[in-house]
Amino acid sequence: MSIEISRLQKPIHLEGLDRYEPGKPVAEVERELGLRDVVKLASNENPLGPSPRAMAALREALADLHRYPDGPATLLRRELAQQLGVGPDQVAIGNGSTDLIDLLARSFLGPEHNAIVSEGAFARFRQVVMARNGRAHLVPMRAMTHDLPAMARAADQRTRLLFVANPNNPTGTWNRRAEIEALLGELPPQVLLVLDEAYHEFAREEADYPDGTLWVRRGAPVVVLRTFSKVYGLAGLRVGYAIGAPEIIEALDTIREPFNSNSLGQLAARAALTDREHLRRTVELTVSERGALASALRSRGLRVLPSLGNFLLMDVERSGAEVFRRLLALGVIVRPMGAYQFPTALRVSIGLPQENARFLSALDQVLAEIPPA
Ligand SMILES: *Cc1c(COP(=O)(O)O)cnc(C)c1O
């Protein structure tokens, strides 16, 4: 007996959804193009690798892999709460922070509710809301930055969530403390502000870049998302966390998968949290290379957005897809931005000095091959 797939009709709000396009894996590019020494600057990963402490903890944990993880990730929650100055009931753990984005949409959006999302914001916001109920209200950016006053004006009686990535991926741009303060003053009381701070550790040296947990500690309707995927170098283990009021955390815990974070991820995250040296080296390298790469690109006449993340968004003044393909053929993986409606832009992650140099020389070669559009 065969299932009649044609009779399994998708609900209307799932028609035509786009899927998340991740950066291409190194092994796949090497296999497909017959290349070696491929450089990946496409997923904002830590070029220094995982914390050595995390790797040591993992080796010891392998013998216990027959056991289920601690479902609530009790110790990781407690240690994060302590570091952040909140209660353990104010931290939820996700299978990456993208898991938490999805859990927020499923916890707080009923069929009739909507969410406010910026155009040019991290694509997952729009995608999870569209998959949930199709009611993502998109607000244009202003100067390639979340336009918070316009987003506040877009909120109505049925709005439950308002997403802001600070700094935003893929633009790297950010909103200042006073702007977020003003947004909180204008939001209707039933709206929860989701502040995605995946790049917080790279950004916090900037004077008026705000730490969103400040509003959580004050009891404002804010939930902050952070991750072990970026500065901590643990993207492969999928650990992210949310910081918010106990009622919000309770809602996420009620609907999450019982074992949404795995035992290796929990252990590695706890070890990485204690590794201040790895964190410091990563931020130092990234901030200095980010400045150097931005200057090098601008000296070539390219427009580069100011960024507080571990990546840069640049306008290559040619088809971004074409430049992406040609860089790929030279063994350099970056991210084209067609999905974000930036057809002539590329996003490049900050790598090791030699990786950034590889990217620059490959880019010089490719830009010389194609005339500006
Ligand atoms: C990378 C990123 C994430 C994090 O992803 P994980 O699921 O934790 O790996 C979340 N938000 C933004 C804006 C990001 O760029």
Question: Could you explain the architecture of this structure?
Answer:
- By secondary structure, the chain is an alpha/beta fold.
- Helix content is 40%, strand content 14%.
- It contains 14 helices and 13 strands.
- It has helices spanning 26-33, 52-61, 74-84, 97-108, 123-132, 148-154, 177-186, 200-203, 213-217, 246-255, 263-273, 276-299, 320-329, 353-369, and strands spanning 39-40, 91-94, 114-118, 136-139, 159-165, 192-196, 222-227, 240-243, 303-304, 311-315, 332-333, 335-336, 345-349.
- The strands form three sheets. Strands 2-8-7-6-5-3-4 form a seven-stranded mixed β-sheet, with helices on both faces. Strands 9-10-13-12 form a four-stranded antiparallel β-sheet, covered by helices on one side. The protein has a two-stranded parallel sheet with strand order 1-11.
- A hairpin with an 8-residue loop joins strand 12 and strand 13 (345-349).
- Helix 2 (52-61) packs antiparallel against helix 11 and helix 3 packs parallel to helix 11 (263-273).
- The longest helix has 24 residues, at 276-299.
Q: Keywords, please?
A:
alpha/beta; 14 helices; seven-stranded mixed β-sheet; 373 residues
CA-atom Rg in angstroms = 21 Å
Low-confidence stretches: none
Helical element count?
14
| Number of E-state strands | 13
- The percentage of residues in β strands lies in 5-15%
The N- to C-terminal Cα distance equals 55 Å
Task: Give the rounded overall mean pLDDT.
Answer: 96
**Could you state the oligomeric state of the chains shown?**
single chain
Class derived from helix and strand content: alpha/beta
Mass-distribution shape: globular
Q: Can you summarize the main beta sheet?
A: 7 strands, mixed
What strand line-up does the widest sheet have? 2-8-7-6-5-3-4
Written as H for each helix and E for each strand, in order along the chain, the element string is: HEHHEHEHEHEHEHHEEHHHEEHEEEH
